[in-house]
Amino acid sequence: MPEARKVQHPGPVAAERIQAMPCKASHHRVTLTAGSTLLQAMTDAAGGAGAWFDLTDLPAETLTYVHPAPASDDAHVAWYSAEVVLKDAVILQAGAHLGRREGAAFAHVHGLWAASGGTRHAGHLLAEATVLAADCEVDLWVLDGAVMERAPDAETGFALFRPIATGPVDRPNAVLATIRPNEILEDGLAMCASATDLPRPAIKGLGSLIGTRLTAQAGLDDIATEVLLTGERGEDVVAVGFEGRAITGRLTPGSNRVCVTFEALMISQPADEP
User: Fold this and answer.
1) Residue 237 sits in which domain range?
2) Residues 118, 163: one domain?
3) Taking residues 84-105, what's their average pLDDT?
4) pLDDT above 70 covers what percent of the chain?
5) Same structural domain, 36 and 128
6) Alpha-carbon gap, residue 105 to 235, rounded angstroms
């Protein structure tokens, strides 16, 4: 198996490669309201707290997204495409970290969606520019004790989410974490889980990889690909590269390194749960 590639970011390499913040995650089934932007609907549902959302089969009046693109200068290893706006689309499967940017609610959303004609697309959804067409029930995990906060990052030149503490937590059942560039994804996730010795953690996560290598099928070779974890243990993904073509499949173990950042919420599961 060829060695997983690495990238050289423009800034100094940060000494701390994993940030993992113990917290509590409580599950809720909530309704996102039609006519609201996705960002506002999620903010209302979470009551202003940090959260993770699983978004499935949400009709959108307007859906706005970008996907990875080559960088136009030497300040970043990659950048974003122009915004793509779809009308009467459906969010087929997406995941969202709801956190803060400069004190206001901000969401990082990756996933898979379909245009009105059925063509599938994937990438980085702009929650503030996506409007829901109907009331939708979704799964929400509200966080206590930690939140994602966006801040400038010297190593990559991007503004990135990072987990910060919001207060003491008694008997945490989850870890909110980020993994830095060039780390093998599975190794980074294992280190995040060890922060509180979570039993059999379910993994929610999204971020970017240096290409996407899949088992038993073609992957993506672009220097930056955006992905959403879809398997319960972080083994399956939706991925997209520079061409904007959505692919799904199982990650090849040990072959995928983080490109810019990877954000994860790991939640403990009792042994009798699937």
Assistant:
1) 18-23+144-267
2) no
3) 97
4) 97
5) yes
6) 29
Which tens digit of pLDDT belongs to each residue from 219-264? 999 999 999 999 888 899 999 999 999 999 999 999 999 999 999 9
Residues 86 and 163 in one domain: no
Is residue 71 within 8 Å of 79, Cβ to Cβ?
yes
Mean pLDDT of 6-32: 96
Q: How confident is the model at residue 197 (pLDDT cuts 50, 70, 90)?
A: confident
**Chain-centre distance of CA 216, in angstroms?**
24
Q: What is the CATH number of the domain that holds 34?
A: 3.30.1330.80
Q: Is the pLDDT of residue 132 over 50?
A: yes
Number of domains observed in the structure of the chain: 2
Residue 105's nearest CA partner among 153, 45, 60 is 45
CA 189, 235, 207, 58 dihedral sign is negative
**pTM reported for the whole predicted model:** 0.95
Whether residues 159 and 184 fall in one domain: yes
